[in-house]
Design goal:
Helix content: 10-25%
Distance between the termini: 39 Å
Number of strands: 20
Number of helices: 16
Largest sheet: 7 strands, mixed
Amino acid sequence: MKRTSKLVGLVATAALALTACGGGGTSGTKGEAAGPGAKAVKGGTLQVLANAGFSHLDPARGFDGGVNNFYRLIYRTLTTQGAAPGADGTKIVPDLATDTGKPTDGGKTWTFTLKDGLFFETGAPITSADVKWGVERAWDPEIGIGSPYAKQLIEAPASYQGPYKSGDLPTIQTPDAKTIVFHLKKPFADFGSVVAQNTFTPIPKGQGTGNTLDSKPIASGPYKLAEYKPGASLKLVRNDKWDKKTDDVRTANPDVFQWTFGLDPATIDERMIAGQGTDADAIAGTVQAASVARIQTPQLKQRTMNGINGCTTYLGLNTTKKPLDDVKVRQAINLAVNKQTVRDADGGSALAELGTSIQPPTLIGRVDYDPYPSPDHKGDADGARKLLTEAGFANGFTMTLDTRAQPKMQAMAVAIQQALEPLKITVKINTIDTATYYEVIGTTSQQHDAAITGWCPDWPSGATFLPPLFDGRNITPKGNTNLSQLNDPGVNAKIDEISKLADVTAANKAYGELDKQIMALAPIVPLLYEKVLMLVGSNIGGAYLHDGFSGGIDLVSVGLKDASK
């Protein structure tokens, strides 16, 4: 799941079509510095300071923005997002494939041809059979908990459970070592963007069982894993089997990427502000609210980058749980939540805009509207109370709210708890470890009544926002992205209707209207459109905010200004 919430910063976010701005400047061209103001050079060790570790190193399992950004260092897919600031970063370009795919049969069959000179870190050539094997893993009930699009779009028997359990999937054909053909359930005009998803990473045929790739990934990109201590540290070094001549996207500037996990967010801010020693060579996630005022000096502004991250942070309401199965109860919660206090908990206006609709302002076709308005977005307790009375819950009820083990997420949970208290709704806050949070709430048997989460588009199309979150036919026991578990026939039918549109622009416009239809059912409470505010080390070059990764720093282009320091 592209979860924000996917999550802001390097450890958990993804985004779409916005132009980052402000601070020391976030524009520039590939390989040039935005905030740092200088070109990156080859060599050196780039440090990454992070609060939490990666969800999974296995590309079939991870699906949050931070790990998606990381995956591009060690993995390649048939296509990928561009490497550039602004809208250019969301363009889909060839990666392993020679182009973005050739559709036939009215867009129901797609053919891709692999480039020459592609190898795994082992030296073995990457073939179409390896790509097929990697994609087939998406159907494995234990492994395939990441990006859902392969399973949703590629034709497969209902009983198919991946290559380890079910063997070959005949709807993915490999007529030769360089050609792969996908047969879809129905036409899909944007399938060239789908194959940029992590589930289209090649895995050597026969490998990748169980948890093996979580501890030892098999690299096809410019870096390979040298050392990994889950929750503590991770080190990447160059993959000498990667050939730059086959890759127009990755610059692979540093010799080494060194992650340090488990750092307190306030400690990260202190280190980044001081910028001493190897921290001059460091990047990190979004600064904490308490640090915003401290980075306004001219010297620090030269090291800052900021912009909206293109994701929606929301309160998911589990429509299968009583009394949240009553639409009036969900509508009452939408009216009651004080979004101003939620934003204050998040860090204030410098770090977030108030959310009203499901789709963020950066999404093409998005309609600007507010279905549950209240004075200054501070909540309408009287309107909410009226709806609860009509639903038979004038005396309130008790519900459990899941949130991550991060201070600001817990503060946001408290803000929601306090907003619902006057309605006699008792909110019990359940805190889950950040590294496993999305896996837990994506397991339907472990879901509680509500969760603070979020979503970021996977590529520039409305198809990557509403269908993954609200198509009831895609609810799965594990890796579930429909956290509200909404299964509404009208919504499902409209999704089918839009999916038949061959014009992507028309489809995006239709998704903007579908946003209204869904919000009438109130399966979520849109809370915030979060912003990215990052401070980089003084020796960082080639840094820009990538619109395709929640506004995070694009790892495939960043590096050091001086590798000798």
